[in-house]
């Protein structure tokens, strides 16, 4: 299989190229890849979608910081090509998301509050992380509701609304990515956590996702489909 990198000189582009060297049947090419992989920036998404559509390629988008307009573009493109959107390509995070959804379904909103805390390196530009928001959506699916998002509380009179989800972001050093989803109940806590120790885990997950995507029909996919 051949993969093509939309931003080959970026941190993730270099990590994927390095990981591909360990795959005997995988090659990174400049054009004509079976799958185009984009870990660039929100501003680059339109160009990567156009490139994939013109070439009839599958497209893997791992860019974070996307808004509803970007998601609308991806949904439209998925009518013509296989497209997988993953704010985090770690297989471990994909499993964590599944566990969060299951926990939220079991633990009632009246007695169990949800807080999501994430930490990343000092160069990360968006907060909260796309992964944190992705985990929050998993919790909302588990409870079958659109929850109020509490973003980085600061001030007074901040009493918690029942069913809301709180997000806190930590930035500093070289942290590759830490995520804790806390279910805070009466006299007990359940904490589901993931620690990324190297960007290599995202690269390996991206390759696994690309392998999955290369054989799919047009449609919008996620890492849940990959681990499924």
List keywords for this structure.
7 helices, 11 strands, 228 residues, single chain, six-stranded parallel sheet, five-stranded mixed sheet, alpha/beta, 36% helix
Quick recap:
With 228 residues, the protein is an alpha/beta fold. The protein is 36% helix and 25% strand.
Q: What features would you describe in this structure?
A:
- α1 (11-20) links the parallel β1 (2-5) and β2.
- The protein is built from 7 helices and 11 strands.
- α1 (11-20) packs across α6 (200-214), α2 (45-55) packs parallel to α3 (68-77) and α4 (91-106) runs parallel beside α5.
- The two termini are 21 Å apart.
- The chain has helices at residues 11-20, 45-55, 68-77, 91-106, 130-143, 200-214, 223-227, and strands spanning 2-5, 27-29, 35-38, 58-61, 82-85, 113-120, 149-151, 165-171, 177-185, 188-196, 219-221.
- The mean pLDDT is 94.
- The protein has a 6-stranded parallel β-sheet, sandwiched between helices. A 5-stranded mixed β-sheet has the order 7-8-6-9-10, with helices on one face.
- The protein is α/β, with parallel strands linked by helices and 228 residues long.
SSE layout:
Blueprint: E1 2-5, H1 11-20, E2 27-29, E3 35-38, H2 45-55, E4 58-61, H3 68-77, E5 82-85, H4 91-106, E6 113-120, H5 130-143, E7 149-151, E8 165-171, E9 177-185, E10 188-196, H6 200-214, E11 219-221, H7 223-227
Parallel strand pairs: 1-2, 1-3, 3-4, 4-5, 5-11, 6-8, 7-8
Antiparallel strand pairs: 6-9, 9-10
Helix pairs in contact: 1-6, 2-3, 4-5
